[in-house]
């Protein structure tokens, strides 16, 4: 069974994280699957919108630490870099249905989505500094722009988590729903009925002001992230994380 389920219903493409036994922790293969799904959808005229969702109780626990330690994604051609580029450049409406834990990239990828729907119990966190790393996916630009410098700095530097109500108030999500996937699908269907070129052009205009800045920040983040991954500080933080996980 694929760890990324790629299906299409009508004009809506669904990409679902499918590793529920590991809280959908993302491996390099899963990043590659997500990138392929987005890139294929971008070039397929029959696709009017994409919904990113997940199987099981959680959206994602973030990166699979063991997979990362085994082969750190340090090059521009890595699966992680390819996925982040596909997110940045995806031209069609991108909608996310989120529940449970949305950790690390599980939160930062949402900053690239056009509409995010979450369950009331969703917990968001970006514990990059806690793991001896730096934030990625352009989040050091996009998150302060969304919530203000002070709030972004506090969340990034402490690694603290926050809930759906706070995420809604921040503007990170558009709606809280009992059935996030059902609600996200309805929104995607509404968008799919709109004139497609007008939709694509409107998204491009909405993103245009920050696109080049976000691209430049993502490049800088990735370079520092790659260096940090190979540092003693990160290794020590990873080991501490794994030990804590093993004892819990």
TrEMBL record:
Matching Pfam families: ECH_1
Keyword entries, A-Z: Isomerase, Peroxisome
Gene Ontology molecular function, alphabetical: delta(3)-delta(2)-enoyl-CoA isomerase activity
Protein name (record): Unannotated protein
Chloroplast as UniProt keyword: no
Localization of this protein: Peroxisome
InterPro entries in the cross-refs: ClpP/crotonase-like_dom_sf, ECH/Chromodomain_protein, Enoyl-CoA_hydra/iso
One GO CC term on file: peroxisome
Taxonomic source organism: freshwater metagenome
